[in-house]
Write a structure and sequence with these properties.
With 742 residues, this protein is of the alpha/beta class. The protein folds into 4 domains: 177 residues, 2-Layer Sandwich (Prim-pol fold), CATH 3.30.2250; 88 residues; 287 residues; 77 residues, Arc Repressor Mutant, subunit A (Orthogonal Bundle). 39% of the residues lie in helices and 13% in strands. Strands 5, 6, 7, 8, 10 and 11 form a 6-stranded mixed sheet that branches. The chain has a 4-stranded parallel sheet with strand order 14-17-13-18, sandwiched between helices. A 3-stranded antiparallel sheet has the order 1-4-9. The longest helix has 25 residues.
């Protein structure tokens, strides 16, 4: 590939690397799910970075030997290209003999010399007929011998090889069809303005996003307008012309409207919104795949920005849903699909939590990260009663029975710490699915908790940090009757479920300070009561059962547990090391530092301090879920683990700030503030609020409201008309109505 690329630049054709095809999948992080396999740029600035510099070309293909070759078309390479799909023909028109290649799909690229007439020529689709495209200014082609997703290579047509054929002049009918009219910016790439705020790879990102979808078109325009109001219009117009729905007047009118109306202050659409859209359609920034210098860029995410906002006013924020919670592929995705398809009221968040915890148990003591983190996870699913909390647990039990892996499931009740240790002696890697987890947490942490329950909390904390070593249990006075138990690399996983009221009533600020909260990944259901669906009652699919059985049986390590007086434990387990890609490792280290900056008190600091660790554990389980033989923590695995870990932490910080209190007075303040916030933009009337606050006397409610107003958490509007009309009354609202409505 390097020799061909060097040969092209010797002809004056500017080249750049394009993602290749290896093992039948695109080399980008989306793999088999990529929407443009083997066709989108691999370098950070894509087609705009095309070069004639041989040294740079050598560095590119030394870094990516399997990269396909992109040739920039247009004036800089002196090329016009007629791109014809295989199912369409232009037999009725004259096409002179010139250099021509056969694409991987069987179509053809017909190359012509770029006229020296001072005109500019457009890149576009369906120029003169269906399936006949133009590659000129701002465009590119994938050149031989690049690999196509079909398994065939692009190749030069035998009778028109580059070394044996001269470039012909384009026929006049073709020039007329693709000549850009004076003053018309038809698909001409806007020039890059170094002083602007748009990144240099903006073209690559835009090219990955279909311009025909209205919502995407509007969001891209808003993001460009917000990020760079001076140069953004040229880019939006250029990109909009890729759609058949394009209208120049509409683009300009909408741009003026965006400028006039402004943007949402709380959550504006930014350049990161464009990046996320592009990534959904297969784009990946190659710079994120190598090199520590780009690791910081990889950290940028919506959930991290929310964490920054929470450092200012956590109680005033709402839980923002995580948009890409569902894994794209792998065992977790298959388990989630089974849970959701068989559910009357599907709860995706709870399905993901249960599936992840189950895979973590199956993978226990078999895999580890380079820093020796394991797959032990404590996940808690929060949903209201009647919202389908128990369904995910039932599905996991069905899968376990069908795959003969019930030894990986512990009891549904844990009476004490010694009881938990006894269970792990049978199998040191187990998933404990615990309903009413809020009540259990209260029993373990309350001031009146009995010794057994307090010991259970201490045992859970100890097991969490002992997954990579030998856990040495309690020393008892009578060793002959009650032996000290030693467990080699125990892997205890938890999937608990609870209602919000049960769970947060069990907490005090001390759980944040002592670290017990930080070990929990608390996942909130996005819907209070999801819409009903007609469920599938089929048994777990055979392929799913086989995959679970394979993971459970893979490299089953010796137990290594020697129990008794004077007994020594020989640690014979040797889990497989799952490595992180270099840039991902750097980004993971930076994540730890970045999240600590968001802490606003000791409890929040403890919660955010565990995000990097939780992200790595989740990414490890995700990587194993996709490939049990050769798992690797790449950008996709890390992104999923990072976003889920930050989202869970953000949600926990919001809810703790709203509901967790250490005394009755603080509890009353938070309950009233929550009622006002949940009323949304219209606020809540004084009479309505009084009826809901039956736990307070009238004077007490007035004192609470006065304190909240003084603290600038709510505002009082007198003489307002209530949300349902009627006589003027006193209404209470949050200071930022948008926060309440979210």
């Amino acid at each position: 590939m390097l020799e061909w690329a060097l040969a092209y630049i010797a002809r004056g054709w500017a080249v750049f690397p394009v993602h290749g095809i290896v093992d039948g999948r695109c080399t980008c992080r989306h793999g088999v799910a990529c929407s443009r396999p083997g066709k989108h740029p691999r370098n950070s600035n894509g087609r705009t970075g095309a070069t004639l510099d041989a040294a740079l070309v050598r560095r590119w293909w030394k870094t990516w030997p399997s990269a396909n070759i992109g040739i920039a078309t247009g004036n800089e390479s002196g090329l016009l290209v007629l791109d014809q799909d295989d199912q369409y023909a232009l037999d009725a028109v004259e096409i002179p003999h010139t250099i021509e290649s056969v694409t991987g799909r069987g179509g053809r690229h017909v190359l012509f010399s770029y006229p020296e007439d001072g005109a500019r020529y457009i890149t576009g689709t369906n120029i003169v007929a269906q399936g006949v495209d133009s590659r000129a200014d701002g465009g590119y082609i994938v050149a031989p011998p690049s690999m196509h997703i079909s398994g065939r290579r692009y190749q030069w047509e035998d009778s028109s090889l580059p070394d044996e054929t001269d470039l012909a002049s384009a026929p006049q009918w073709w020039l007329d069809a693709i000549r850009r009219a004076d003053g018309d910016g038809a698909c001409a790439v806007p020039s890059w303005v170094p002083d602007g705020e748009l990144p240099e790879n903006i073209q690559d990102m835009l090219e990955a996003i279909p311009a025909d979808d209205y919502m995407a078109w509007r969001d891209v325009g808003l993001a460009l307008n917000y990020t760079d109001p001076v140069n953004g219009l040229a880019w939006w117009d250029w990109w909009s012309r890729r759609s058949k729905k394009y209208g120049e007047i509409e683009v300009k009118q909408q741009w003026r409207a965006m400028t006039r109306k402004g943007h949402a202050v709380a959550r504006p659409l930014t350049i990161d919104s464009i990046r996320q859209l592009a990534e959904k359609h297969g784009y990946t920034d190659p710079g994120l795949e190598h090199g520590a210098e780009v690791a910081a860029v990889f950290l940028a995410s919506e959930q991290q920005r929310i964490a920054e906002q929470l450092a200012v006013a956590p109680a005033a924020r709402a839980i923002v849903p995580l948009p890409d919670l569902l894994p794209r592929s792998g065992l977790i995705a298959d388990i989630v699909a089974y849970i959701l398809s068989s559910s009357i009221r599907p709860q995706p968040e709870l399905a993901v939590a249960a599936a992840t915890a189950y895979v973590g148990a199956l993978a226990g003591r078999k895999y580890r990260t380079e820093t020796d983190l394991r797959t032990n996870l404590y996940l808690v699913g929060i949903a209201e009663s009647g919202a389908g909390k128990d369904h995910a647990r039932k599905c996991v039990q069905k899968i376990a029975h069908a795959s003969d892996t019930t030894s990986f499931l512990g009891g549904e009740r844990i009476a004490s710490g010694p009881g938990l240790i006894t269970a792990l002696r049978r199998n040191p890697s187990q998933l404990f699915m615990l309903d009413e987890f809020g009540f259990l947490l209260s029993a373990m942490t309350s001031a009146r908790a009995d010794a057994h329950k307090r010991d259970l909390m201490a045992t859970l904390m100890g097991l969490y940090t002992s997954a990579s070593v030998v856990y040495r249990g309690t020393e008892y006075a009578d060793q002959e009757k009650r032996e000290r138990v030693e467990l080699v690399q125990p892997n205890a996983c938890i999937y608990g479920t609870s209602t919000p009221a049960q769970f947060y009533a069990a907490l005090t600020s001390m759980q944040g300070v002592d670290g017990s909260l930080a070990r929990l990944l608390v996942v909130h259901a996005s819907e209070t009561r999801p819409a009903r669906q007609r469920p599938s009652i089929d048994k777990p699919p055979g392929a799913l059962v086989d995959a679970v059985r394979s993971l459970a049986a893979r490299n089953a390590p010796p137990s290594g547990n020697l129990v008794g007086l004077g007994g020594t434990t020989v640690d014979t387990t040797d889990p497989q090391i799952v490595k992180m890609d270099p840039a991902i490792y750097d980004a993971w280290e930076l994540l730890d530092e970045a999240m600590l900056d968001q802490a606003h008190d000791s409890a929040t600091k403890t919660i955010y301090s565990r995000i990097a660790e939780n992200a790595a554990r989740l990414a490890l389980v995700y990587a194993v879920s996709r490939d049990i033989d050769q798992p690797r923590i790449d950008a996709e695995a890390f992104s999923w683990g990072r976003e889920l870990a930050i989202w869970a932490a953000n949600s926990l910080v919001v809810q703790v700030a709203r509901f967790v209190s250490d005394n009755e007075v603080e509890s009353n303040h938070k309950r009233v503030a929550s009622m006002v916030r949940e009323a949304g933009d219209d606020g809540i009337g004084k009479n309505t609020l009084t009826r809901r606050c039956t736990f307070l006397r009238r004077k007490e409610l007035d004192d609470v409201l006065a304190m909240l107003i003084q603290a600038s958490l709510i505002v009082e509007v007198k003489g307002a008309v209530g949300p349902k009309g009627g006589r003027p009354t006193t209404v209470y609202k949050t200071l930022d109505p948008q926060i309440g409505s979210r």
